Amino acid sequence: MNNYFQSLQPVHYLPILTTLFSGFFLYQIARRYLVKGGTHLFWWAAGVFTYGLGTLFEALITLHGNTPVLNRLWYVAGAILGGYPLAQGSVYLHLKRKNANILTAVTLPFIIIAGLLVFFSPINTDLIEVYRPSGASLGWQWVRLLTPFINTYSVIFLIGTAFWSAIRYSRIEDGRNRAIGNALITLGAILPGVGGGMAKYGIVEALYIGEFVGIILIFAGYKVCSYNSAAVTVPERQLVSISDAAN
Question: Which pLDDT value is given to residue 230?
Fold first, then answer.
């Protein structure tokens, strides 16, 4: 056991901090949801929850060592769910409810099936690293080919809408805070994706850093947008993104 902990680096403990911060962030959004309601806030709260759930499994792997069960749970929470719930929040905010419901009806079964396939997949225990999670241990490697579809969906509706909102708000009077906030959210949403891409090549430490910095930037964007100095006159549904859960 001593040799196990000696092999760990400080970066392997980052998921502990990320999980704690995600819990704090979840409290902020859940409280707003209980006050205001809104399907978009529900999905964003679910997104922060699954974000923290994924880093919780990473923390458990660091503290207690990896197992087939922990590795499966981590892959479902991180790679399968990933940014999907957050993206769904943006879907319900930016699109008409009918269209948002259609997208949910199409994508949610895909997410559920992909998650079940991970649990049904055999595990190559020889490829499980003691202190680092990895999708390489899945016996059905073709399951990993499903994640690019999920990631593309998240990029379009989470990163895309935040980036678009940052540009639009930068062009209107009194939109400075929301422009900055959405820019921070855009960057924060990109970093875990970059880290996840590097994790596929065995550099899971990059994922840990991306997740930690990413959730901080998303939260910072959320808070900056709440400091809007004046009401924005442009129609809300045309401009806002995840940041407006703060208002």
Answer: 41
